[in-house]
Write a structure and sequence with these properties.
Number of helices: 3
Oligomer: single chain
Strand content: under 5%
Number of strands: 0
Largest sheet: none
Structural class: mainly alpha
Helix content: over 70%
Distance between the termini: 72 Å
Shape: rod-shaped
Length: 101
């Protein structure tokens, strides 16, 4: 196995770990892993992919994109939940203020 393919497998593994952390709602860890992964992606594409590995790299990139879509959907759901909570808190503050004035 070439270094490029090993690097790609590491990127896929890191993406899956991010997905698992998102499912566990460990968002701080997701952000730390994303910083690490971004640097690895930058390094991965510093050199062109050899034609012999182009199909494997393309498949790996598709896998990463699918994992990322799921992770982003989890993030969007959490953002929506937080927005709902903040809205409810805001309504509660207005009610308390109206009651106490």
């Amino acid at each position: 196995m070439t270094d490029k393919i090993q690097d790609l497998q590491q990127l896929i593994s890191l993406s899956r770990t991010m997905q698992e952390k998102a499912r566990d709602e460990s968002w701080d860890e997701v952000f730390v892993l994303e910083t690490e992964r971004s640097e690895l992606i930058r390094l991965f594409f510093l050199e062109p992919v050899q034609q012999a590995y182009a199909d494997a790299v393309a498949a790996g990139i598709r896998s990463i994109m699918e994992i990322d879509q799921d992770t982003m959907a989890l993030g969007a759901l959490k953002r929506f939940e937080l927005a709902q909570t903040l809205q409810t808190m805001g309504q509660g503050k207005k009610a308390v203020k109206a009651y106490t004035t």
